Amino acid sequence: MFHNKIESQPSEDALLGGFLPDPPAGAGPDAEAYLEDDRDLVWHHLTRHEGALFPLMVKGEGLRLWDVNGKEYLDATSGGVWCVNLGYGRKEIVEAAAAQLLRLPYYVGSAGNLPSVDLARALLKHAPGLSRVYFSSSGSEANEKAFKMIRLVSYLKKDSRSKILYRDRDYHGTTLGALSSCGQKERSLGFGPFVPGFEEVPAVYCYRCSFKKSYPDCDLECARAVEEVILRTGPETVGGAVFETVTAGGGILVPPPEYWPEVQSVLKKYDVALILDEVVTGLGRTGAMFAYDHYGIQPDLLTLAKGVASAYLPISLTLATEKIFQDLQSGSGVLGYFRDISTFGGSAAAAAAAYANLKIIERDNLVERVKAMGEVLIGSLSEFLKHPNVGDVRGVGLLAGVEFVSSKDARSPLPEELVVKVAVEMAKLGVLVGRTNRSVPGGNNIINFAPAYFVTEEDVSRICQAFGEALKRVLG
Ligand SMILES: Cc1ncc(COP(=O)(O)O)c(C=O)c1O
Predict the structure, then answer these.
(1) How far does the centroid of ligand 1 lie from the alpha carbon of residue 81, in Å?
(2) Phi/psi at 397 (5° precision)
(3) Which long-range contacts (C-beta less than 8 Å, at least 24 apart) are formed by 344-347?
(4) Is 140 in the pocket of ligand 1 (CB under 6 A)?
(5) Which residue of 85, 279, 315, 446 sits with most ligand 1 atoms within 8 Å of its CB, as the best mutation to test the pocket?
(6) How far is the C-alpha of 83 from the C-alpha of 249, rounded, in Å?
(7) How far is the CA of 32 from the centre of ligand 1 (A)?
(8) How far apart are the CA of 59 and the centre of ligand 1, in A?
(9) I need a labelling partner for 234 at 20 to 30 A (CA). Which of 36, 98, 189, 376 fits?
């Protein structure tokens, strides 16, 4: 159990509670009008609008959220999509951003700003081997920058290594380049034609191995398949490989310890640059500052977004080795530098929020805390393996998934409607969880848990109680 000197909750003083209006005490006429206009005027992400009202959130504090009707939730998703890693109402982040907004909100181009330097200095200390930070404003964009860097290096070297490998079940964003590297076919369905030059390698998914093998007797066939794809594609044409270190939205797939060293050695053999997408896992989520720290490997490019400023302001980063940076300075004229810009990559306030976020993670030993509380969370969820429809419980740090099946023997995925019902029942019980959503055809059967880093043992009990009750209501 988690009993050590790490502060278990931010002090009252660290939260903004007192500054915020109380949540509305019930559905007055105003709440009703907001709910209706939200349904009728706002186009929700990833959603078929079928006339139902959506919840409208109005206030957050720590891990608690309140909707416009005054209903309280425990948020086990960190803002729906694993972003608000330090919880809601974090005064230090807000004050850092507010002070910077007053001093200088923004400037981009050849001039820089102080918080970006502070952030780059502090962040690079955690990422030996990487030495440059490129700023933009979304995870998709951070990955697009990485793809463009790989392609421009190849163009400058005139070596035709513009192809990029990606992995089944990984997701790298919503833009067309990122969707061209999408291993979640429900996400990319219908948006083609796609950008050429992306090649898929098999998922690392021990519960449903594409090679019908079992770890550890499998000889890591999924890792060795990377070499086969390189050979089939033509090693002289492959310049990069983009992977999620731990697949998040594709089902919380944590590679076994030997996977990454094996993949890294194959990529090195063919001189293929490794782009690690840690948009979800970066900055502590898995109980290490970066998920790749668990494996002792070294990326050439690293992309970060969601937790960089705990989503208090939008910011994303592409970190690069000095070699890639220098390769991109090697041309002449317009080819003598990386001709790319991100308008909102110049947000000094977002950089200030991110710097404050990182300083809190360091000061409060949050990476250690995530590791310890992750064991509590995953240990508690593992109790549900007794249920006939719970096929697998897996995860690392505060990133956990429960995979539902109709039959344990056949491992047949439980129909998505039933998985949705479990999540809906949990929301009725006041606990918000995520799920594989419009990701993998026939494979949206995983509920995921990614609470903020300050989650307590009581919170974990409440999450598990609601989960157990929802399971009973939906599946018996
Ligand atoms: C692993 C991963 N990479 C990239 C992205 C894209 O980030 P964004 O939605 O900020 O563009 C996501 C978003 O969910 C993600 O999960």
Answers:
(1) 9
(2) 60, -145
(3) 344/136, 344/137, 344/314, 345/108, 345/134, 345/135, 345/136, 345/137, 346/106, 346/107, 346/108, 346/109, 346/113, 346/135, 347/105, 347/106, 347/135, 347/137, 347/313, 347/314, 347/315
(4) yes
(5) 279
(6) 13
(7) 32
(8) 24
(9) 189
CB atoms within 10 A of CB 139: 29
- Does any ligand 1 atom lie closer than 6 A to the CB of residue 314? no
Tokens of 280: 């979800």
pLDDT in tens, 282-341: 999 999 999 999 999 999 999 999 999 999 999 999 999 999 999 999 888 888 889 999
The answer to whether the CB of 173 is under 6 A from ligand 1 is yes
The DSSP secondary-structure symbol of 309 reads: T
- Ligand 1 lined by 305 (C-beta under 6 Å): yes
CB 423 within 8 A of CB 433: yes
Could you say which architecture CATH assigns to the domain 92-363?
Answer: 3-Layer(aba) Sandwich (3.40)
- Determine whether the shortest distance from the Cβ of 249 to ligand 1 is under 6 A: yes
Nearest 5 degrees, angle CA 252-CA 285-CA 273?
75
**Residues, the chain, total?**
476
Handedness of CA 242, 260, 273, 83 (dihedral sign): positive
Cα dihedral 178/314/283/254 (nearest 10)? -30
Q: Measured from the CA of 278, which atom of ligand 1 is nearest?
A: 1
Element (H, E) at 400: strand 400-407
Question: And the tokens for 200?
Answer: 């898929």
Preceding peptide of 256 cis, ω within 30°: no
**pLDDT, tens digit (0-9, with 9 covering 90-100), for 384-434:** 999 999 999 999 999 999 999 999 999 999 999 999 999 999 999 999 999
Number of H helices, E strands in the chain: 13, 16
Tell me which of 82, 143, 171, 439 to substitute to probe ligand 1's pocket, judged by most ligand atoms within 8 Å of the beta carbon: 171
Q: How far is the CA of 139 from the centre of ligand 1 (A)?
A: 5
- Domain ranges in the chain? 12-76+365-475, 92-363
CATH classification (class only), 12-76+365-475: alpha beta
- The alpha carbon of 174 and the centre of ligand 1 are apart by a number of angstroms equal to 7
Whether ligand 1 lies within 6 angstroms of the CB of 307 is answered as no
